[in-house]
Design goal:
The chain is α+β, with helices and mostly antiparallel strands. A 6-stranded antiparallel beta sheet has the order 1-2-3-6-4-5, sandwiched between helices. Strands 7-8 form a two-stranded antiparallel ribbon. The protein is globular. The chain starts with a strand and ends with a helix.
């Protein structure tokens, strides 16, 4: 594949899949030019980004990030983003408030399975310097680095999952026109079961609700292991009704592509939980997963 591929462009957010080698190569080229005195203008370091990808300005923002990292620092950062030996990362440039929100959620979910881990950097308003965030989001908020100007831009670097999103997998399969095989059915059922169990564990410990629990926000490894991404709408200390509504939304979304009648039947059983604000428990979640296994 190309070393750089655009994956999204929504509002102020742009994202690409980028080869880690390409990031290092560009960083070293930028650093070399700067040392020689020919790269003082950031625009000189862009290396024909407009010709290579759609959206040079956002790549230019990333170029500024690279110039404020040491060679060892960026190599270490990219090493932490490895996922099953994958040599690519996803780079997402967005406004600071959204990036900070995602960072806060990730920090609180640290150690739980099923949620993507990423590296985050921020830029102060009006400055070119970026802050690498290795501490907690609360520490970043308390930092006086941006106290006078506030945060302007956030950059998230996260592992690239070879299997793509669950939504893209389901859509591609449906568009093929071929019937679902037993192995494919088992994969989708397994992904759903694991995601539901993972979000329940997060709810059990912190009453966490993802808030945007749809197939597009579930990414897969090449082996079919899922992870949740995009935490901008996530909340903590939520009532049980919100948890069940999230799960019902997921079943309805996947049902648009796969076993719609069966998933609709299972989703209807959740209405009682939502109506009476039944707190999720291991028993109720186990009952749900048992119904999922029996019907799919």
């Amino acid at each position: 594949m190309s070393t750089i591929q655009r994956t999204g462009n929504v509002g102020a957010m742009s994202s690409w899949v980028v080869s880690k080698k390409e990031l290092l190569r560009r960083y070293r080229a930028h650093a070399s030019r700067k040392q020689k005195g020919g790269g003082t203008q950031v625009e000189n370091c862009q290396e024909n980004a407009d010709a290579e990808i759609d959206g040079g300005p956002a790549w230019l923002q990333l170029s500024r990030v690279l110039q404020n990292l040491t060679g060892k620092g960026i190599a270490t950062m990219l090493g932490r983003l490895s996922k099953h030996g994958n040599e690519r990362v996803v780079v997402k440039v967005q406004d600071a408030a959204a990036a900070l929100r995602e960072l806060e959620v990730q920090k609180r979910l640290a150690g739980l399975d099923g949620f993507v881990e990423f590296h985050c950097m921020f830029r102060c308003a009006g400055d070119k310097q970026y802050i690498e965030s290795y501490g907690t989001a609360a520490e970043l908020r308390r930092s006086r680095v941006c106290a006078a100007k506030g945060l302007e831009m956030g950059v998230i670097l996260m592992p690239y999952y070879d299997g793509g999103s669950l939504e893209s997998m389901l859509r591609t399969k449906n568009q093929s026109g071929r019937p679902w095989s037993a192995e494919e059915d088992a994969l989708v059922a397994s992904v759903l079961s694991k995601v539901i169990r993972d979000v329940y564990r997060a709810y059990e410990t912190q009453r966490f609700v993802h808030g945007d629990l749809f197939a597009k926000n579930i990414v897969l490894t090449a082996e079919g292991e899922p992870a949740l991404i995009d935490f901008e709408l996530s909340k903590f200390d939520e009532p049980g009704m919100r948890f069940w509504r999230n799960v019902e939304s997921l079943l309805g979304d996947v049902g648009n592509y796969w076993k719609q009648r069966e998933l609709d039947d299972i989703a209807r059983t959740l209405f009682v939980h939502m109506a009476y604000d039944v707190a999720p428990s291991r028993r109720t979640v186990d009952d749900l997963l048992a119904a999922l296994a029996a019907r799919t």
